[in-house]
Design a protein that fits this description.
The protein has nine helices and eleven strands. The protein is of the alpha+beta class. The strands form two sheets. The chain has a six-stranded antiparallel sheet with strand order 1-2-11-10-7-8. It has a five-stranded antiparallel sheet with strand order 3-4-5-6-9, with helices on one face. Strand 7 and strand 8 form a beta hairpin. The relative contact order is 0.12. The structure holds zinc ion.
Length: 328
């Protein structure tokens, strides 16, 4: 196990022990609390002997995202008891339902803008962040991000990003400051190994769009003479705590669309291991016509299915189409 993670987990365990002792001091001993203290002590002892983080059945390393969400875990996923497996599945299903509730309205209209998205986790929950938020100033924000890693740990960070942007957007900060603040909070509250690539766009009623691309795959402006790619202007969110970001501006004419996606599309593979690739997305984007976002996304999904055939999805997939429908 990486020493940085073990260091953080040790601090968490020591902190947990302290809080349990305080609880005992405040309300007296109870069998449950004594049991927990013994478990925490046993985990700390395993760290001393070097057996921490190894499954007690097969002695292989336990999945690190599971250790991060529960530092007392002693078995790898393959060696949970039947009851533990069922409890885990129930937890995951609930987490998936909660995550669905965090997603924006799937039929989003705002002035002359029409937005649709497709959000598909590779497993039960996703590490992609997808959001649409209107502001009092008459603009709206569209955000698409991808947290490093997959599964439950990534989905927790996705929820964290969502809460941050929902809190920061109503403050009416300039776009780059909004992203800088989000990056700082994200950096301070996550493990050093976690970061998120993200595109945050702010669109006005007249078709002007300001975009901050923090290390994410370039959104494509389609429907004009050529496909225009909006490249990253900064590093991923949370890579460094004092990161600075820049923004760029594009004009979206009536009938044009901004297409955003995560690497679940660009890095999808077929059975032979071939990658879908950005080149194919550009080719597809050149042929996309019309300003019905749902229709554009369906064309993308159809092409992806045709390419992938039966190969399983390996990564969370999100596609978003931000269309400007009519002059205003
Ligand atoms: Zn095992």
């Amino acid at each position: 196990m990486a020493t940085a993670i073990e260091h953080i987990l040790r601090e968490q365990l020591q902190d947990r022990r302290l809080r349990l002792e305080q609880a005992v001091a405040a309300v007296g001993e109870s069998p449950q609390v004594s049991h927990l203290i013994r478990e925490v002590d046993a985990a700390l002892a395993r760290m001393e002997t070097g057996s921490y983080g190894l499954c007690e059945v097969c002695h292989e390393p336990i999945e690190s995202d599971r250790l991060i969400s529960d530092p007392l875990t002693r078995f790898c996923l393959d060696h949970l008891t039947l009851n533990q497996q069922r409890a885990l599945e129930d937890d995951l299903e609930l987490a998936a339902r909660i995550q669905k509730g965090l997603l924006p309205n799937p039929h989003f209209h705002f002035g002359a803008w029409d937005v649709a998205y497709h959000y598909e986790p590779a497993g039960i929950v996703s590490g992609d962040y997808c959001d649409l938020v209107t502001s009092e100033s008459g603009d709206f924000y569209f955000i698409l991000g991808d947290v490093s890693g997959k599964g439950v740990a990534a989905s927790m960070l996705m929820a964290h990003l969502q809460a941050m942007f929902r809190t920061l957007i109503p403050m009416g900060l300039p776009l780059q400051e909004l992203v800088e603040r989000a990056s700082r909070v994200f950096c301070e509250s996550t493990l050093p190994t976690h970061f998120a690539t993200l595109v945050c766009g702010k669109a006005d009623a007249a078709g002007g769009v300001e975009v901050c691309n923090a290390g994410h795959l370039p959104p494509l402006l389609i429907g004009g003479e050529r496909v225009q790619s909006i490249d990253a202007t900064g590093l991923p969110l949370g890579a460094f705590c004092d990161e600075q970001f820049a923004t760029s501006r594009v004009r979206v004419e009536p009938g044009q669309t901004l297409l955003l996606y995560t690497d679940g599309l660009s890095e999808a593979r077929d059975n032979a291991g071939q990658m879908y690739g950005i080149h194919r997305i550009h080719g597809l984007a050149r042929g996309l016509k019309g300003s019905r976002p749902q229709g554009l996304i369906e064309v993308c999904l159809k092409d992806l299915t045709a390419f992938r055939k039966n190969a399983p999805a390996e990564d969370d997939l999100t596609i978003m189409a931000v269309c400007r429908t009519a002059a205003s």
